[in-house]
Amino acid sequence: MELPICVLVDPTVLQCHEIEVQEVGPLIRLRMAAIPVTATCPACLQPSVRIHSRYKRTLTDLPWANISALIEVSVRRFFCDNPQWRALVGHSGMT
Ligand SMILES: [Zn+2]
Q: Distance from the CA of 1 to the center of ligand 1, in angstroms?
């Protein structure tokens, strides 16, 4: 069986800010943030640096030994400033 080349998070994309271990559960929680300060619009492929908003995504990972694992990632959403596409409904932001 061939293993994936990268099984760990790319440190140029995500940075871990905090690791919290709760004895109740037990639970380990990783708080991470996205590093890139730009995003490419998936519709028009133009880069953007203008932040629309921030939100969290929560991932539940497989348990580490007998400890439940939870990953919270803070993610930015960017505006698309391409004037040809801006007027389209649902094309105001990208992640
Ligand atoms: Zn766009």
A: 40
pLDDT tens-digit readout, 42-87: 888 889 888 889 999 998 878 878 889 899 999 888 888 888 775 4
44 found inside a domain: yes
- From ligand 1's centre to the CA of 71, what distance in Å? 29
- How much distance in Å is there from the Cα of 76 to the middle of ligand 1? 16
Spatial CA neighbour of 82 closest among 44, 52, 37: 44
Q: Ligand 1 centre from 3 Cα, in Å?
A: 36
> Is residue 93, in this structure, part of any structural domain at all?
no
Q: Is residue 70 part of a domain?
A: yes
């300060």: which residue's tokens?
37
User: Separation of 95 CA from ligand 1 center, angstroms?
Assistant: 11
Residue 88 in domain? no
Using CA of residue 36, residue 58, residue 51, residue 92, what is the dihedral sign? Answer: positive
Query: Residue 41: pLDDT above 60?
Result: yes
Residue span of the structural domain in which 63 resides? 1-78
Q: 0.70 cut: is pTM over it?
A: no
